[in-house]
Amino acid sequence: MRFLHTSDWHLGRSFHRTSLLDAQRAFLDHLVTAVREHDVDVVLVAGDIYDRAVPPLAAVELFDDALHRLAGLGVPTVMISGNHDSPRRFGVGAGLIERAGIHLRTAPAECGTPVVLPDAHGDVAFYGLPYLEPALVRAELGAERPGHAAVLEAAMDRVRADLAGRPAGTRSVVLAHAFVSGGVSSDSERDIAVGGVAAVPAALFDGIDYTALGHLHGAQTLTERVRYSGSPLAYSFSEAHHRKTMWLVDLDADGTVTADRLDTPVPRPLARLRGRLADLLADPAHARHENAWVEAVLTDPLRPDEPMARLAKRFPHIVSLAFEPERPDEDPLASYARRLRGRTDQQIAEDFVAHVRGGHGPDTAERALLADAFDAVRADDSEARR
């Protein structure tokens, strides 16, 4: 069986206030063409179809058009909701839509209920694990511990229990929206950390023939059977180095997996430039970036006059400008920025407690209280999106 693995469409998202709807439409045109030209049997979309819980009408219309075109090809599609999607809104009409071959999986209770599709060698069971917010689904799934790893483990227990009752030789595919250990993140993914721990081990998916992951925006191979497709478009300058693709996966009769990357259309390249204004305007090495979306970080010790207007004359598609003046190492502002870089919310809060107490950080009970507070905020945010 051949399937196309994609995720993180984020329909309706803009790039630094620049609409991406045309680029997203071009991607969906490309996806439909790829399904037809590569004789794809099934399309898998591993979450974050929309960029927010209540998407704009234009994004909904784009999604609706894509579903009609896929259904028109007679190619089944399996989709799960991600942490940006509202599972209740996204799942409306799922029973009716399923009659057209579009299978939406948004409810935790459905984790162990697969979409079973046959090929010449037998059945393939596709299990959809939507984004599972631990505080909201722990009780429903019967997870013994809090956290992402525990709820995903409970969901996978249901998957394995169902698979064990199926005929020998039934192949299995899992779609999941999660942060799996070994994956590399970028700036455009919403934080799903709970208690400072978001990553789950890839070993949770052992025994599954293929796991189609969503959430991280860079295409990644964690194992030959566990992969992220990444987003089809770049949604932050941290993705400037990404090669945006989809996975074209062949699942053989014995469960052997072979996967190839299909490039997606690039609406405009990204460039991150850093230096003094005069150098950015004059350096001939930057000529190749003049048609790119540009993020410029100026290092001038003193802020230049009208920097955005001056840069726009050479880089008409500049969309982001920041200032990081060159400072001596002993400058307190420079050292503070370095201390914060790469630290979690929990770590920053603990550092603040230590600061106001003259160096005495929180004890174990206080750390747990801070973790509970951050978990409650994230749970409230997830509940508001449902």
Automatic annotation (TrEMBL):
Instruction: Report the superkingdom from the record.
Output: Bacteria
UniProt keyword terms in alphabetical order: DNA recombination, DNA replication, Endonuclease, Exonuclease, Hydrolase, Nuclease
Query: Transferase: present as a keyword of the record?
Result: no
Cited InterPro entries: Calcineurin-like_PHP (IPR004843), DNA_Repair-Maintenance_Comp (IPR050535), Metallo-depent_PP-like (IPR029052), Mre11_N (IPR041796), SbcD (IPR004593), SbcD_C (IPR026843)
Name all Calcineurin-like phosphoesterase domain ranges: 1-91
Q: Which SUPFAM superfamilies match?
A: Metallo-dependent phosphatases
Where does the Nuclease SbcCD subunit D C-terminal domain lie? 267-355
Q: Which GO terms describe its molecular function?
A: exonuclease activity
Q: What does this protein do?
A: SbcCD cleaves DNA hairpin structures. These structures can inhibit DNA replication and are intermediates in certain DNA recombination reactions. The complex acts as a 3'->5' double strand exonuclease that can open hairpins. It also has a 5' single-strand endonuclease activity.
Question: Per the similarity annotation, which family is this?
Answer: Belongs to the SbcD family.
PANTHER family listed in its UniProt record: COMPONENT OF ATP-DEPENDENT DSDNA EXONUCLEASE (PTHR30337), NUCLEASE SBCCD SUBUNIT D (PTHR30337:SF0)
Query: What NCBIfam families does the annotation carry?
Result: sbcd (TIGR00619)
Q: How does it assemble?
A: Heterodimer of SbcC and SbcD.
Question: Which protein are we looking at?
Answer: Nuclease SbcCD subunit D
Which species? Streptomyces gamaensis
Q: Which gene encodes it?
A: sbcD
